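Exercise 3.2. Students should predict the tertiary structure of the chain below and write it as structure tokens, then compare their answer with the key that follows.

Predict this chain's 3D structure.
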Amino acid sequence: MSLVGRKARAGFDKLCDPNPSGLEGTVEGDQFHIIPPPFPNDLPSGSEELAGTPPLLLLGGGWLPNRDSISWFFDSIWDDVRRENPKAHAHVFGSDGSPSTPATSWHPSPSDSRHIFCSGAILLVPLRIASGIRMKIIESWARGIPVVATPEAVRGLEAGDGRELLLARDGHEFSAAIRRLVEEPGLRKQLTTAGRNMVATRHDPARIVSLLEETYRAAQR
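Answer key:
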């Protein structure tokens, strides 16, 4: 990144990035601005019913960090989750067609992402490779679905553990977080409300337009 940063610093007056880790340490502080991606803050959850109490949502697909997260989840986390939450059911979206089992279901990517976020579900984001912004976490907040994620997954989102989501680093912490969300409806409500508030303030489209316009004007001076 240092070489990229030097080239960027030489070629541009101002740089924008949605992720603070994308440019920090590579360009001078007054040469880049952190501008979050815009997103609507009040979207409906899906009307479909998914198996499990609770249904656990995971995002697969061909992207390397997602592939690694799914492998790690089933190799190192799932047994702990099942032990503490025997009625839970894992739903992997964007899968490669792996066979389902009584406790897991593999789904193709839906045409409308709303179908992923069913009422009563929990989004799990067990990423070990930090890269980019987790738009599905933002969407989960906007749809009122609680999130349990690794610290790597929330980098750049300015979210706090126990405030907008719950952080987990291993199977024990994931299983404990899921159990808390099942047994503490007040916690679930607190997290989803704070998540929606985060989207409404930090990712408000009108605010983002204003930040971009201000940045463009500053670059022209």
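Discussion points: DSSP finds six helices and eight strands in the chain. Residues 2-37+204-220 form one domain.
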